[in-house]
Description:
Mediates the uptake of pyruvate into mitochondria. The protein is an all-alpha fold. 84% of the residues lie in helices and 0% in strands. The chain is built from 7 helices and no strands. Helix 5 (52-71) packs antiparallel against helix 6.
Amino acid sequence: MAAAIKALNAKIRSNKYTDYFCSTHFWGPASNFGIPIAAIADMSKDPEIISGRMTGALTLYSGTFMRYALAVTPANYLLFGCHAINFSSQLVQGYRYLNYYHFGGQDAALAAKAREGVSVVKDKAGEVKERAKEVVGK
């Protein structure tokens, strides 16, 4: 049995593509891609849910590992790409956080919600007025 496993491993390692596919140079970045995918998905959500500390930590983490991905031998371009995407996504999230909490975005969002609420109330008041005219006219 051990000889069969050893032969299978030698067969896998003899092909450079399957050798790469079975290595940590592939599976490390592949499993790490969940972080940038989540950051990209969060870009369409309300900026109120963004954690400034976590965004900063993930930006530093990805910046550090972008450098690490190129420092190892052989260079791991898949890992570099993963962290470059995450770094960019976290910078966008950081901008959204700063804009919302420190540059007036929160006030603008609240004002927009208030204007929306006023227009809804006016629409409802118009409907009530029309209904009242119908009832009184009968």
